User: Which sequence fits this backbone?
């Protein structure tokens, strides 16, 4: 059993990370100060520094927490009888159910990752965890008979990840974002890919010509 002081320490960290996410979503990462986070968390600035030495440490804490939650998400559907339905549930969670502030905060961290190599490495770690989780889900879906022969599951996982990233960005920026449409679009693309209806690597001249003709009849 965990000791009471360990539980309190972890609770305090989550309290601070929640406060940091609210502040950064509201005013931006670079405009947010440690004093702002302390005020939002109802703690003194000196107490904040006992848990996080800097704003970079706060970003590290938020990204690591996101990674842990992603792993927990995929673990929770590990034995689902219908993997496609379980995948829809995860899409609904992240594109509809969770507060929009999470999407806004993701944009802030992605922007910081373009300038800060350490943050970039953290983001790549999260993306790797998402990709691994998706590949595991798709492999189980294949075992359930839901994948056409010859489908590249790695490519399908990359497609899903790319779509969700883009829709997550739109959710952060668009006041009238339609989450139901977004979930339906991800599922439609996933079903088409799993049925072998999307060619990820059209290498033959005939296929390329067909694609070009469809785009420019």
Assistant:
């Amino acid at each position: 059993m965990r000791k009471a002081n360990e539980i309190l320490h972890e609770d305090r960290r989550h309290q601070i990370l929640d406060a940091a996410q609210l502040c950064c979503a509201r005013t931006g990462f670079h405009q947010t100060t440690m004093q702002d986070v302390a005020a939002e968390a109802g703690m003194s600035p000196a107490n904040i520094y006992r848990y996080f030495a800097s704003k970079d440490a706060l970003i590290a804490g938020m990204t690591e927490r996101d990674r842990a939650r992603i792993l927990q998400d995929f673990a929770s559907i590990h034995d689902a009888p219908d993997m496609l339905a379980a995948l829809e549930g995860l899409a609904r969670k992240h594109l509809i159910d969770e507060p929009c502030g999470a999407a806004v905060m993701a944009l802030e961290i992605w922007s910081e990752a373009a300038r800060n190599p350490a943050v970039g490495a953290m983001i790549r770690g999260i993306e790797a965890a998402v990709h691994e989780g998706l590949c595991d889900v798709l492999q189980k879906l294949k075992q359930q008979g839901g994948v056409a022969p010859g489908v590249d599951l790695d490519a399908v996982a990359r497609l899903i990840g790319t779509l969700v990233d883009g829709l997550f960005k739109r959710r952060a920026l668009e006041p009238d974002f339609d989450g139901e449409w977004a979930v339906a679009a991800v599922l439609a693309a996933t079903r088409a890919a799993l049925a072998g209806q999307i060619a990820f690597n059209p290498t033959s001249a005939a296929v390329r010509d067909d694609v070009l003709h469809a785009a420019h009849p």
Q: What stands out?
A: Residues 203-217 have pLDDT under 50 and may be disordered. The two ends are 67 Å apart (CA to CA).
